[in-house]
Design brief:
single chain; 205 residues; alpha+beta; 7-stranded antiparallel β-sheet; 20% strand; globular
Length: 205
């Protein structure tokens, strides 16, 4: 894992056609729009997310988003800020921060963390720490995580609302991502009878 400051990551993102709105929480496809999206709810077959299933989904989403290509992955927090507020107040934030610190991301760093193709588990661990440590607790959009595969045709938004969003400029990459998750056995997530979630979703792009 290596760190990339905001300027360096912005150069990479703009080279891939990702836009930066005024004060963007994350680079997106298009300045006025965020492109098209494909949401996948967290696995909650019993009404709550089991951590080992969530870990499996995070790893699966990373694999599906890579499109079997090399180039590694960029992990970006909301606004690129790893300040991690409230760390002194709640133990789940302190545990999350300890995991991120062990991965090599220092408190207060601003920018992206780059993980090579050989480091998907370390990348997944960081996303898991950011998402699951606040699950059903007090988390807000500041706990979201964004993964940008090196090919730049799609990115993943791991939402504190217990959704994994695939985001792209057109439907083609999203269809490939969705098919990848289905091949890995996650089609049941979108079956309301088999996977429970707290509020209804519009599955349209």
């Amino acid at each position: 894992m290596r760190l990339l400051d905001v300027s360096g990551f912005r150069q990479w993102a703009e080279h891939k056609g990702l836009g930066w709105e005024q004060g963007p929480h994350a680079p997106c496809f298009g300045v006025a729009e965020r492109g098209v999206s494909s949401p996948w709810p967290w696995p909650k077959p019993e009404g709550y997310a089991r951590p080992w299933q969530l870990a499996d989904l995070i790893v699966g989403a990373i694999r599906a988003a890579a499109f079997d290509e090399t180039g590694g992955f960029y992990l970006w927090p909301t606004y690129g800020n790893w300040a991690w507020g409230r760390a002194d107040d709640e133990p789940f934030y302190r545990v999350r921060n300890a995991i991120l610190h062990a991965a090599g991301i220092p408190v207060g760093f601003e920018g992206a963390a780059y993980f090579s193709d050989a480091e998907p588990d370390a990348l997944a661990a960081c996303v898991f720490a950011c998402c699951f440590m606040i699950d059903d607790c007090v988390g807000d959009a500041g706990d979201d995580s964004f993964i940008y595969p090196g090919h730049g045709r799609l990115y993943l938004h791991f939402d504190d609302e217990e959704i994994v969003w695939g985001m792209a400029a057109s439907n083609g990459p999203l269809e490939a991502f969705d098919e990848g998750l289905r091949r890995l056995g996650w089609a049941w997530l979108r079956d309301e009878a088999r996977n429970q979630w707290d509020w209804p979703l519009d599955w349209g792009s």
